[in-house]
Amino acid sequence: QNVTQTVEEEKPEPPTTQEIKQKIEKYNAKVTNCLLMKLNDDGTYTGFIKVHLKLRRPVTVPAGIRPQSIYDALKEVNLAEMTDKRTSFYLPLDAIKQLHISSTTTVSEVIQGLLKKFMVVDNPQKFALFKEMRKDGQVLFQKLPLTEYPLYLRLLAGPDTDALSFVLKENETGEVEWDAFSIPELQNFLMILDKEEKDKIQQVHKKYERFKQRLQQTLKEARGKPG
Fold it and tell me: Ras-associating domain: which residues (predicted)?
């Protein structure tokens, strides 16, 4: 069962550098791969997080653009800006992307970084980052504030992804600031919603058509029986 929590937790006092050092040592002792956290001289630290992409709707990407190469990444070439042509594309459901981030990297920056890696040109406000936890047989989702630091949450939870994992999902419709979107983006949203509505109507029609056929068959068989 999936349960989404929207209540924000109160943040405790920020830990000291010594406390962070101890937490990192404890974290690294549990790591079973090479994805360790590293403490920097200035008190910040770096590490890895994995984000599951659970997007139900298509995203907008540049049309006819080749995948990003290592050269493009090193030169910070934005391939999405090389063409004005756009197309809709479904990302693989529950794809996983691994990110190397800093303790100062915010949720907002993680979302923008993921969109850039997949060359998604949709407004970042369409998306939200959730933390996923498993408790008492339930899967709990909690939306993270844009100013939250995912690496710190990873550090507190430890490397076990069953205790905590990150999920990128569509933002709740009521929380999206639609004024921030362009006219083509809004038109694209309407096209997607219209398609989803038609698909849903078709599914309902098929469901009741099958039910109607079974009912008619049952009545036919009942009439053919004596008494």
Answer: 87-173
Beta strand 45-53 with 165-170 is: parallel
Take residue 134 and report the two structure tokens written for it: 């498993």
Both structure tokens of 213:
């056929």
Within a domain: residue 189?
yes
Instruction: Give 112-131 pLDDT, tens digit per residue.
Output: 999 888 888 888 888 999 99
Q: What DSSP line would sit under 103-143, residue for residue? A: TT--HHHHHHHHHHHTT--S-GGGEEEEEEEEETTEEEEEE
Range of 202's domain? Answer: 179-224
Angle between helices 150-157 and 17-30 (to 10 degrees): 60
199 and 161, same structural domain?
no
- In angstroms, the Cα distances linking 175 to 6, 171, 184, 199 are 12, 7, 20, 25
User: Parallel, antiparallel, or unpaired: how do β-strands 86-89 and 38-39 relate?
Assistant: unpaired
